[in-house]
Design a protein that fits this description.
elongated
């Protein structure tokens, strides 16, 4: 198997695992495991081994889950960036230099943020949610 197919397999596994770990059924299963562990306490006389079981189990699950979720988050962030880049590229008017901002240095991002803060301060304040929605709708009509 080449490295590409291993990566594809891992990505598919990570997506499915993240979806499974985030489900209510998985949470319920974790609660049942903890309750079972608590109920087993008197049987094992609340020994160090009894405590070690839950500590080791949760540490291993947490350790592995972090990598799976991080993989999924990285892919989601990359997809969102690509979608935003496409929108910026296709819309007339925005600065195309905003494409691929994730590759900028922290200083460049800070400068850009200051520019947007200055732009925001120069705009009249919105009085409410309805006005912002109306403004957005009228801006879409103009475009």
């Amino acid at each position: 198997m080449d490295s590409r197919s291993w990566t594809d397999l891992f990505n598919a596994f990570a997506r499915q695992s993240a979806a499974t770990v985030g489900s209510p059924w998985t949470f319920l299963m974790a609660v049942v495991v903890v309750i079972g562990w608590i109920l087993a306490g008197p049987t094992f006389q609340y020994s160090n081994a009894w405590q070690l079981v839950i500590n080791t189990g949760t540490t291993i699950v947490t350790f592995l889950t972090v990598f799976l979720i991080q993989n999924t988050q990285n892919r989601d962030a990359k997809a969102i960036h690509l979608k935003l880049d496409e929108l910026i590229y296709k819309i007339k008017g925005p600065r195309n230099r905003l494409i691929a901002l994730e590759t900028c240095t922290d200083e460049e991002l800070e400068q850009l943020q200051q520019q947007f803060e200055k732009l925001k301060r120069s705009q009249p304040p919105a009085t409410g949610k309805a006005e912002r929605q109306i403004d957005s709708a009228s801006e879409r009509e103009v475009v």
